[in-house]
Design a protein that fits this description.
The complex is a heterotetramer, with two copies of chain A (380 residues) and two copies of chain B (387 residues). Chain A is an alpha+beta fold. Chain A has eleven helices and ten strands. Chain A folds into three domains: 113 residues, Butyryl-Coa Dehydrogenase, subunit A, domain 1, CATH 1.10.540; 107 residues, Butyryl-CoA Dehydrogenase, subunit A, domain 2, CATH 2.40.110; 144 residues, Up-down Bundle (Butyryl-CoA Dehydrogenase, subunit A, domain 3), CATH 1.20.140.10. Helices cover 51% and strands 15% of the residues of chain A. Chain A has a four-stranded mixed sheet with strand order 1-4-5-8, covered by helices on one side. In chain A, helix 7 runs antiparallel to helix 10. The longest helix of chain A is centred in the middle third of the chain and has 36 residues. Chain A starts with 6 loop residues before the first helix and ends in a 5-residue tail after the last helix. Chain B folds into three domains: 81 residues, no CATH class; 117 residues, Butyryl-CoA Dehydrogenase, subunit A, domain 2 (Beta Barrel), CATH 2.40.110; 133 residues, Butyryl-CoA Dehydrogenase, subunit A, domain 3 (Up-down Bundle), CATH 1.20.140. The two termini of chain B are 39 Å apart. Chain B is globular, with a radius of gyration of 22 Å. In chain B, helix 8 runs antiparallel to helix 9. The mean pLDDT of chain B is 92. The chains are: A alpha+beta (380), B alpha+beta (387). Chains in contact: A-B, A-C, A-D, B-C, B-D, C-D. Chains C and D meet through strand 9, helix 9 and helix 10 of C and helix 10, helix 11 and helix 12 of D.
């Protein structure tokens, strides 16, 4: 067992931290919360130039050929600064699925666009139920003259307002079992019939409603197999859950750091409040949560990276980290007192994102049920 | 033993409930739930309530009250909360302290005005370096003939931007050996020259304020209690009200709303099987807290110490925890919809749950942090030693 | 609202406390844990002479004619000293049900025996499932020549080993709905065919297995209506749950008192440990639990006493107090440290009984489900 | 990054697992679970383990170890726990401290004996007035030519009745200004005249002891470290082992047992719908704690501080809480059957759950209370100030 990062990973971490500290201050984060796009196209081009958008893709498409663990380290750094924009959607919900199951033509067409920072992707999966289950996919794609026509409403779709392409998950066979009639389509976001509404969310993170009305998609835009792709979708969600946990880990670290720093400095009753046992215990339990999250997120990412199965670990990790981040922001806020509930403090930025991150790719309860199934229980 | 309200209390409850059912219209509710707090509609309602002696039922009749007990006060608070009516807490808190520590002239000058809903007070305790440690306030008051000159800064003074007076804790003796012995309390007209009020917005979008004092003059007759005796006055303001809150109509209404939502929107019983027992647990906590509060309030009215001296602080501690649990659970029930804000497409329950969830940390921090509450219970209630 | 006890109640409390302090020291409690009978017949006669066994029964049968609230105060005092013996079973599970629904002949026959301390009663209700539901009653009573024959196994029956009579709850119609085929029989414990085994329990409180094998009971020993008595059984359980909570309240008070006293005296790091914030918070939360239990137990007892409905309040109270007592013994133990996990300390006596009391008449989860039903949910 | 054991560690795990599968028979298990602790069967097994160098894999080969790392130690602990084998923790803890603080003669005299399973140590820290505040021990050691004379009392010395030596913290300088500067550490032969061992039984039925010293003589060469330097020695004993525990095979086995019980006995799915998610939560906690512990242990082997310096103490804190939750949940699953003791009719799962439930408080109290653990993490790990 070796818990350390490799030398290259340490360099990646340091350079990412330096870059993001300079280029992504909290002022930018706040600005982007109210920005229509929600990200800085200029900064986007800079990270593409640094190779981040291509980091995890093979060199043959112009990528960096680095590992999923490397990507996780980058995501942790992005989580620290609350990096705004469609990086996660594009890489985890666009590029990697195409790399997984795309045809060679599709890879050659789309991956270079992602790697170079030209195209923004997202996945249009969840609908009104908000659930990550096969039976929740109700949007229909009907064969029509060799092509397909999509109708349905997708909800909570990240970054759809700026996406160039959607991976739209739709039902192509409604007579088969839930899991057996689902297909992924690569849909040009400019196709006629698509309308998008940005939702107002706690994290102001541009989740959207996307309505597909008679949207035509050519047959060659099917990603992976017709009807038999739910297993792949699950893998995409599980991997994204692990990646999201790495991002959350970064946020938790910062909340812990800023809390510990504050309670060392803040004087009340003539002593730093960090001498009070209640405050110390708050910080200790925050540490338990941060270190627990680190251990499980790294292990899960390492499993993805080394080709081991990771389905259980994704569930364990997302269940733990979702709850842990909630506890960390709650204890951090309580330890800070009044100053940290003000909108101009950094704490609410993390407090709000902790909730959004908890909800995405299944909350703790959803994943605990998965673990229960793996323990042998029958669970709905 | 008897757990029913007296006929007089029931009548008062009916009166204020019917009054607010009729008068607390949607304009008022919108103001209560708005970022800015009290506005013109609220002010109008408060004056109407005042005219009906509904604001200060516990005060003597001569000062605009009804001469009732802590239970009537608890009934009033409960009805105001559950109607989303404006909450003139600070004025009542000030008045309670004035009743104990003020001189007759001060009582006559301020109490009837508060009772009528004419005079609003904002509490001025916290400073950037004096949070839970209130005794370390630095805002300086220097005696100058028949006035005091004030310089310094207050923070988190929520009602300051719509109030008439500031209930201001100041330092009059910076050399006092024990720092809480060098404090004095003033009632300062917020229109006095030299006062600057700057908004501070919480992450839930609620407005509070920083208040800056620069050579502000306040007449001596506006000092409450003795010079350097300010600590006694605020202890009376904080704890002099007695009673322990009690009725929890508002919280039970939120629970009902959530139950209804769950029954309508979460019909997938298998998947949501955790909800009934969890909601039941919250209902039980609320009900138990209500009974504890009612007992503490009834003891206060009898002027008897409750067993273990825990009293209202104990039920408030439970209530604070319940509130946090309730909105965490509510957010879990709403699932991904919970993250949607008031004016978003698809928002459930008008976004009120999200608003309360965002506001929840304030409840365990403001009005003395929970840690301070526990210290008070431990040392005063249980007699545990202090360091 | 008046939260005070009446003057008479204060006198009852004081005299009970004085008597029990003298007569029921912890040495007796420990002795009775290992005693075959589990109680002192001499002390039993003394409390009967004091009028306790008859306290709550009408004067016309020789009782004290006092209220259920008065009885609750007595139970709270018994809970403080962990009074051993079949008082609870006899009064709550024997006498009061007979008073509720017995015929005048039955009352005249049995109540004086209870009041005078001659007869010990208990209720044989629960079976292998351990549940307090109608469908769990499987023991059968078959009509035979105008009399009845009972067959079945009852489990967790308190004080059955010394009982003179059982109120045996049995199924008399297995074709009707669960709730509609149940009857209560007053069974002489010396009847042929009854065998009893004392179980070894955490509280060493003489819960028994009772096997009924072809036990003959005359028809006139039916208590209340034939087949239609489940509603009455529920009322008996609910009232017993409230009474048990009053007993538990007494125990919690003592645990809080002894903890507060200990942390004021125990010196570590040159100060009483009660100055430490963590210990203070433990004690504060114990107080919340004690005062919460007092408020809800008293209210529920007052409702029974004044003839108000008490079904919801029984569920709320037993749910709260069951959990609260667990928390109180856990925090009390943690605040004491090592000394309180020794068998010769008083704490384990309370720790063990807190668990037994939690389980009897339905645990917290059982009662939360009842409350959930009252909120409008459909719950199994 | 790599989360797999090394081939050498895997081989060691396989070796000790197979050894204990074969040798840790039911007689040994009965002794482990008995009130008295280690008996003749345990002693025999320990000697066999010692002969196979399974007891102290981390120690240098010359002292009877294998020269492996903290991970091997963690593997050993895990296998011993999950087999209910005897647990020679105290001897190993003593040996770890001897390796750092002992002189060469002491190492040669004691370490090989411990490694062979011949010598057992009992820790002698706590006294009636020195619990979490270990530095205030009063057992007096007075120098008398080439001996020390010991008088006083120890308490909660669990292994004292079957051990050979007492690892005894004593006071040699009662006038030291800081009380932890006046302590010295001795290894005392428990058969020395003047020692009386009296049993103390916990509420779970486990035996521990009071040990009384009356004019007991111990030779100077049995002092470890410097005179008045005992604090350094016990800090090395308590924290010198490094590593962070780790593997949780035993706990996972308990979870499996409960899942199986629930699936077989609690088929009324509707009523027991809370069980799957709760058990999953416990499994997750256990798994996360295991990974944290493994990381801390691996860092210890690399002689690198883990991030935030939290290390093993942090995973142990989580583990302590998990243990309490696990047995509380187990008792809830068993329902009324949970209260039945080992030899009762109808007892489920041999009464092991009840035994562990009764024993649970010990885990958060003994070996330094959880409060002390948190203090260590807060001040050493996070650098928070001390009072």
């Amino acid at each position: 067992m070796d818990p350390r990062l490799s030398e290259e990973q340490e360099i990646l971490r340091k350079s990412a931290r330096d870059f993001l500290t300079e280029k992504c201050p909290k002022s930018l984060v706040r600005e982007m919360e109210n920005d229509e796009k929600g990200y800085s196209p200029q900064l986007w081009q800079e990270i593409a130039a640094l190779g981040w958008t291509g980091l995890v893709f093979p060199e043959k498409y112009g990528g960096g050929g680095m590992s999923f663990l490397d990507l996780s380290i980058l995501l942790e750094e992005m989580g620290r600064v609350l990096f705004p924009g469609p990086f996660f959607s594009t890489v985890l919900l666009g590029g990697l699925p195409i790399l997984d199951i795309g045809s060679e033509e599709q890879k050659e067409k789309y991956l270079p666009e992602i790697i170079s920072g030209k195209a923004i992707f997202t996945m249009a999966l969840t609908e009104a139920s908000g659930k990550y289950t096969a039976s929740s996919v109700k949007a229909k794609a009907t064969a029509d003259n060799g092509n397909y026509v999509i109708n349905g409403t997708k909800l909570f779709i990240p970054d759809a307002h700026v996406a160039d392409y959607f991976l739209c998950v739709a039902r192509t066979d409604d007579k088969a079992k839930s899991e057996d009639g689902i297909t992924i389509f690569i849909v040009d976001a400019k196709s006629p019939g698509i309308s998008k509404t940005v939702l107002k969310t706690i994290a102001r993170d541009k989740q959207c409603e996307v309505v597909f009305k008679d949207v035509k998609v050519p047959r060659e835009n099917i990603l992976g197999k017709l009807n038999q792709v739910w297993g792949e979708v699950q893998k995409i969600i599980e991997r994204a859950a692990i990646a999201k946990c790495c991002e959350m880990l970064g946020g938790m670290e910062v909340v812990l750091d800023m809390t510990v720093a504050y309670v060392k400095e803040r004087i009340q009753f003539d002593v730093p409040v960090g001498v009070f046992q209640a405050i110390q215990h708050h910080c200790v339990y925050m540490l338990v949560d941060v270190e627990g999250s680190r251990a499980t997120a790294y292990e899960a990412a390492w499993r993805v990276s080394t080709g081991r199965p990771y389905s259980s670990e994704a569930a364990i990790t997302k269940a733990w980290v979702s709850d842990a981040y909630q506890r960390v922001v709650a204890l951090g806020t309580q330890s800070h007192g009044g100053v940290s509930i003000m909108e101009d403090h950094d704490m609410p930025l993390y407090y709000r994102r902790a909730k959004a991150a908890e909800l995405t790719f299944g909350d703790a309860r959803f994943h605990r049920k998965t673990v229960a199934r793996k323990l042998g229980f029958e669970v709905a | 033993m008897d757990f029913e309200l007296t006929p007089e209390e029931k009548a008062f409850q009916k009166e204020i409930r019917e009054f607010l059912d009729k008068e607390c219209n949607e304009n008022v509710v919108a103001e209560t739930l708005s970022m800015e707090g009290e506005g013109p509609y609220s002010k109008e309602l408060l004056r109407k309530m005042g005219a009906n002696r509904l604001l200060t039922p516990r005060w003597p009749v001569e000062y605009g009250g009804r001469g009732m007990g802590a239970m009537a006060e608890a009934i009033k608070v409960d009805e105001i909360n559950s109607h989303h009516a404006p909450f003139p807490l600070d004025g009542v808190e000030v008045g309670n302290a004035l009743l104990i520590c003020g001189n007759e002239e001060q009582k006559k000058r301020f109490l009837p005005g508060i009772a009528r809903g004419d005079i609003e007070f904002a509490l001025g305790y916290s400073e950037p370096d004096a949070g839970s440690d209130v005794a370390s306030v630095q805002l300086r008051a220097v005696e100058d003939r028949d006035e005091f000159i004030l310089n310094g800064q207050k923070i988190y003074n929520t009602e300051a931007h719509f109030s008439d007076y500031h209930w201001l804790l100041t330092r009059t003796d910076p050399s006092a050996e024990k720092k809480h012995r060098g404090l004095s309390l003033f009632m300062v007209d917020l229109k006095s020259p030299g006062i600057t009020i700057r908004p501070l917005i919480t992450s839930a979008g609620l407005r509070t304020n920083e208040v800056f004092y620069e050579d502000v003059r306040v007449p001596k007759e506006n000092m409450v209690g003795e010079k350097n005796g300010g600590w006694t006055v605020i202890m009376n303001a904080l704890y002099g009200g007695g009673g322990g809150g009690g009725l929890a109509t508002g919280t039970k209404r939120v629970i009902d709303t959530l139950v209804k939502y769950a029954l309508e929107e979460k019909q997938d019983a298998d998947e949501n099987q955790w909800i009934p027992e969890t909601m039941a647990g919250l209902y039980i906590r609320t009900h138990v807290g209500e009974l504890m509060g009612l007992r503490a309030t009834a003891f206060a009215d009898l002027n008897v110490s409750p067993p273990y001296g825990g009293g209202g602080a104990v039920s408030r501690l439970l209530g604070g925890d319940t509130r946090r649990l309730l909105y965490n659970t509510a957010m879990q029930i709403l699932g991904p919809y919970g993250q949607l804000a008031k004016d978003s497409k698809w928002v459930p329950l008008n976004g009120e749950i999200l608003r309360e969830y965002m506001d929840a940390p304030r409840w365990t921090i403001v009005h003395g942090s929970q840690e301070i509450q526990k210290l008070v219970i431990a040392t005063r209630g249980l007699g545990l030693p202090r360091r």
